[in-house]
Amino acid sequence: MKKICIFTIVAKNYIGLAQILESSIIRFHKDTVDFHIIVADEFPSKEQKTPDNVVCAKPITGYSEEEWQDMSFKYTLTEFCTAIKPSVFQYFYDKQYEKVIYFDPDIYVFSPLTKIFSALDTHDMVLTPHVADPHPIYQGEDEWAICVTGIFNLGFCGSRNADSTKKMMQWWRIRLTGQAFCDRTVGTFTDQKWMDWAPAFLGDKLCVMRDLGTNLAPWNIFEREIYQHDDHTLWVRPRHNDGDTTPSPLVFVHFSGYDYKMLLKDVISHQRLSNPEKHADMGLATQIYQDALRKGKETFLAYMSLEYSYNQYDNGCKIENFHRRLYNGLKKEGYETGNPFSTGKQSLFHILQKKNMLVKESIDKLTPKNYSDYGKKLSMLNRLFHTLYKIMGYHRYPLFIKSLYHFSQPESHTFLIPKNSFPKSKQQGHTL
């Protein structure tokens, strides 16, 4: 066993993508790093053949059967994969690795990770901020969104097997058992927002790595320019003159939000950035990543067809995100719903069916951008609020508007479920 472990967490359909990350790491650190792919869900058959470094999370993370069932139902795929992250760190600490590092599966390494390894010789944790420098005139996509989602990007987290990180991982694990939702109304964003506490907890044991070549991504490409060095390696320098001017080798890129199938077809498609080709130099890195995708295409596409285990009830009907949060609300209020994946007569599914909350076409991907006639519907809603204003008057209307904050959380709508449908638990509901 080597002293350094690098791991990623995926649903089984992203194993092929994780193997592309693996190939980029092993290229530089074959003799010094053990790489592991942790699969958050389950394979349909125990006889499923996978590489030796592919490990199912459930047996190694130490959650009880009740905790696993609760978390895998109430969380979306992304929320669940991130919620179990600290438990995987703990697993590798117990394996006596000296340094344990996490990468998201959509990361690609372009040069040695030596700087990160060296930082962990003198620090217990290494994190990278979404943006490296203060920019008086901000030119990124959405500065406030970063305030909401967290200062640090947890697509990467480097740690040393030390008392301080063991303590922090236990703290993190407990919080993520109940609060790994992506919910701006309460200020949570999967596992990520919680790490805003890291500087307070770790002090000078935390290394905030502001190196421009580390964790380059769509949210910080506005401040970083990629260029090709004389020896054909890729380097990064500041795009503007309002920050550190020191160039750095390109260490790793976080290709978050890209459509990887479309990249195979030479089409740059991004779910958030309206103009991913705005910074043409990004193409220097993207082209290399596309070549790696093509090289691993067969395995990548083979795994992509596998369904996420916790995406449907036991009859195959899709679980909507609203269902997950209603369930969480009932649990918080102390109700026992039984197995939430069940579709029996006394199940949550049965109640949702009675309430006409099961639809053929998923509503999860509806946004103001893709909802038909959204502008007209918003105008109708404005007229409704205008009527309410006339009824309530000025003194009551502002209070009414403030109260809508409460109803922005799906958990606040458990009144839609008859409370006599489930027994009340002897224990209190979730507090975290």
Structure write-up:
36% of the residues lie in helices and 13% in strands. With 432 residues, the chain is α/β, with parallel strands linked by helices. It folds into 2 domains: 301 residues, Spore Coat Polysaccharide Biosynthesis Protein SpsA, Chain A (Alpha-Beta Complex); 101 residues, no CATH class. It has a 7-stranded mixed beta sheet with strand order 3-2-1-4-7-6-10, with helices on both faces. α1 runs antiparallel to α11 and α4 packs antiparallel against α7. The longest helix has 19 residues. The mean pLDDT is 90.
- Which regions contain 5 or more consecutive residues with pLDDT less than 50? none
Helical percentage: 25-40%
Q: What is the CA-atom radius of gyration, in angstroms? A: 23 Å
> Any idea what the CATH architecture of the largest domain is?
Alpha-Beta Complex
Q: Distance between the terminal alpha carbons, to the nearest Å?
A: 37 Å
CATH fold category name of the largest domain? Spore Coat Polysaccharide Biosynthesis Protein SpsA, Chain A
User: What is the chain-wise order of helices and strands?
Assistant: EHEEHHHEEHEHEHEEHEEEEEEHHHHHHH
CATH C-level class of the largest domain is Alpha Beta
Structural class: alpha/beta
Mean pLDDT: 90
Total helices: the number is 15
Strand order of the largest sheet: 3-2-1-4-7-6-10
What's the story with the biggest beta sheet? 7 strands, mixed
Domains (count): 2
- The tally of strands reads 15
DSSP strand (E) fraction?
A: 5-15%
CATH-level-4 superfamily name of the largest domain: Spore Coat Polysaccharide Biosynthesis Protein SpsA, Chain A
**Shape estimate:** globular
